[in-house]
Amino acid sequence: MNAPVKPAPQELQLRWCNRFAAGRDVTWHSHAETELVAVTRGQCRIRLGEQVLEGVRGSLLVLPAGVAQYQETIGDTRTTYLGFEAPPGLFDESARVLKLDSDDPALEWMEQLCDSHLARPPLSPEVGRTILTALLRRIGDLDAATGSQARLHPAVRTARAYLEANLARVLTLADIAHAAGVSASHLSALFAAQFGAGPLHVLQRLRLERACWLLSNPYLRIHEVAAFCGYEDENYFTRLFHRRMGMTPGMWRRKRLGGSWRIRRGGVEK
After folding, report:
1. Contacts of 147 by beta carbon, 8 Å cutoff, 6+ apart
2. Cα–Cα distance measured from residue 221 to residue 264, given in angstroms and rounded to the nearest whole number
3. Which of 63, 65, 42, 41 is nearest to 52 (CA)?
4. How is residue 265 annotated by DSSP?
5. Does domain 154-264 correspond to CATH entry 1.10.10.60?
6. I need a labelling partner for 84 at 20 to 30 A (CA). Which of 31, 139, 159, 245 fits?
7. 116 Cβ partners below 8 Å, 6+ apart?
8. Contact 80, 40 (CB under 8 A)
9. pTM for the complete prediction?
10. Phi and psi torsions of 72, nearest 5°
11. Which CATH number fits domain 13-146: 3.10.180.10, 2.60.120.280, 3.20.20.100, 3.40.50.300?
C-alpha cells in the first residue's frame, strides 16, 4: 500500500467495522456515521427513502449518516462494511455506488480496516486513520474519473455547498432555493431524487453530523455545540439529537471519550 501524500486528519475517526454473510434482509435502521459497504459476494439492494442503490460483487456503496436504510439481500451475499466520522467538507457522503475492478486497492483497504478493527487487541487508531484516509482519497479519485459529481444537477451542487457553509445560520427552504437559483419545489424534487430527502432534512443531517464531531472536543459546552450547529435553543437541540441518535449529547460525549467527563473553567476533569 502506498502511503498517503498528506498526513491523516486527526478528526477522521473509524468507529466500527464488520462483515455480513447471510441471505436475509436487514430491516430499517440508521447510523450516526457515514457508512461504506463493499459487496464481496452475491447481490443486495439498499433503499434510502425513494432512492435505491444496487450492489453487486465489486460494488462499493456510500451511505449517508442519519438516513434510514433497508437492505434487501438477494441470495447468499457477503459484504464488508464500516462507519466513520469526518470533519465537514473532507468527504462527499452523498449516496452513490462505485464499480470497482477486482484488483482495486479500495477493496483491499476495506478488508485491512475490518481485520485491524476486529483484531484483539485492535491496531492503533493511527493505523486505521491512515488506511481510511487512503481509502477516502481513492473514492475521491474514482468520483473524479467517473464524473459522478459532474452529473449532479448544478442547483444541487450549489445548494449543498451553501448548506455546508451556513450550518450555524437560520435557513429556510426559500433561502436555499434562492442561493441555488431555482424554485423551492424544484429544488425539493432534485434533493429527493439525489438524497432521498428534502433540503431542510439534509440540512438537519449535516448539522447533527457536525454536532457529533464537535462533541468529541471536551472543551466545548453543549450549548456551544448547539450554537455552532445552528440551534439557539439547547433543549431543542438535545431533544432533536436524542431522537435522531438515540442518546443525549452528553451521553454521546461520554461514550466517545470513554468516561464521565465534566467541563470546568480552564480545563477538563474526569
Report:
1. none
2. 10
3. 63
4. T
5. yes
6. 159
7. 122, 123, 127, 128, 131
8. yes
9. 0.62
10. -95, 115
11. 2.60.120.280
